[in-house]
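The instructor's notes for this session suggest beginning with a concrete chain rather than abstract definitions. Hand out the sequence below and ask the class to guess, before any prediction is shown, which regions might be ordered.
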Amino acid sequence: MPYTATLDRIRAEYLEMPGLKLTVNQVQRLCGVERVLCQDVLNALVAANFLDVRADGSYVRLTEGRVARSQPARAEGTHGRGVPIAS
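After discussion, reveal the predicted structure:
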């Protein structure tokens, strides 16, 4: 399977199955591709911020795997946008 077709296939699997969490071996078996090609595509999807690789080696969709972090609170005396509060 060519690189682009493999990339499209793996991306489609993660889009079709929310919460999908697979290792490189599992993705390889699911999509029927050789390991080197599979790893290259997974690396590209991580670099594109579509997938995230966990400490255990599993790959998850970035929107599924990370929680957006809020910005730290601003100093007292502003409206949160750097606008001083009238006294």
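Then share the key points. The longest helix spans residues 3-16. Residues 3-64 form a domain with the Arc Repressor Mutant, subunit A fold (CATH 1.10.10.10).
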